[in-house]
Amino acid sequence: MDLIDEVVEEVQHEKLLNLWRRFSIFVYIFLGCVIIGTGIYAFWKDHEEKETKKASAFYAQGLKFEESGQLKEAQETFQGVIDLGVNGFKALSELSLGSMMGNLQKESVQGVQESRKFLEDLVSFPKTPKSLRRIGSMKLLLLDIESKDMSFLKERLESLLKEKKMASSFLVQEARASFEYQSGNLEKSYGLYEALLKDPKAPHGVRHRALRMMMFLKSKEASRAPQADEVT
Hints:
The chain is mainly α. It has helices spanning 2-67, 71-84, 87-102, 109-124, 130-147, 150-161, 164-167, 170-182, 186-198, 204-231. α3 packs parallel to α5.
């Protein structure tokens, strides 16, 4: 019996050795993956903490620039935070840039120039989020309308009308109608205002302004009619 037991044990031992030889490589691979994965995770966590601290410091610096009126420096700093891509601080920086756009001073010629420069830098920066770029473009359009500089307005409209999403904007359509009026194309201007008035999706304010302009253009046309009769 002892001899048989020894033989059985020897056979079992041999089988285990064979199994280990066949599958030990997979055990080593698994253990290696665990070790490497743990190392990568630790490295990623450390990197994330460093990036978060960096974003926090940048954001705080951006706020200081904004408070002191250094718009260009604030913009560049907030853009740097957005580039880092740390979610919380990225969103805060986008909100800060949006707030800066909303607080632009336009009381003086210098204020308008500074506002335009700030917005143009923001819009032209390739990494500016699309939502902020659209807002900046709209604010530039409003500045162009207020400045009554036809060359600026024409150039801005041509640029915006090339973008499908921007071209369908009610503000862009209203600006286009205003541009046609200022260019002397009264009939075309009237048609654009009429389209805005009839569009059920247009905001109430836009439709109201469109109606007022249509009435104004009609009265202007009526005042011209007697003069034309006198000439004939």
